């Protein structure tokens, strides 16, 4: 057998083995279901399930009273409307 032919055959086998190993490695990645993970807040409490339910309802959530209440609570927490505004320094309003 010629040396060039043997070198080509070895190269083809090595390339095939490398491709096979790469395909097997990609298929054996972590196969856990992404939906099994739960998003958690830093304190460890689960994310508001009411908002998740409203998201799953889609357009029907606009007519749902529980969804409107959950959205209002979420806005209140996000914008922190229950906190007092810090006093302004400098100008004093004239009577």
Give a verbal description of the structure:
The chain has 95 residues and is an all-alpha fold. It has a domain of 36 residues. The chain is built from 3 helices and no strands. Helix 2 crosses helix 3. The mean pLDDT is 78.
The low-confidence runs, each spanning 5 or more residues with pLDDT under 50, are none
Radius of gyration: 31 Å
Which band does the percent of strand residues land in? Answer: under 5%
| Biggest beta-sheet profile | none
Salient structural properties:
mainly alpha; 3 helices; elongated; 95 residues
Put the structure in a nutshell:
It is built from 3 helices and no strands.
List the helices and strands and how they pair.
Blueprint (H helix, E strand, L loop, with lengths): L2 H25 L21 H9 L7 H15 L16
Helix pairs in contact: 2-3
């Amino acid at each position: 057998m010629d040396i060039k032919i043997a070198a080509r055959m070895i190269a083809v086998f090595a390339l095939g083995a490398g491709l096979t190993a790469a395909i097997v490695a990609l298929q054996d990645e972590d196969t856990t279901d992404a939906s099994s993970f739960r998003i958690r807040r830093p304190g460890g409490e689960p994310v508001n399930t009411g908002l998740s339910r409203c998201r799953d309802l889609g357009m029907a959530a606009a007519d749902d009273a529980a969804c409107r209440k959950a959205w209002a609570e979420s806005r209140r927490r996000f914008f922190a409307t229950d906190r007092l505004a810090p006093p302004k320094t400098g100008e004093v309003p004239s009577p």
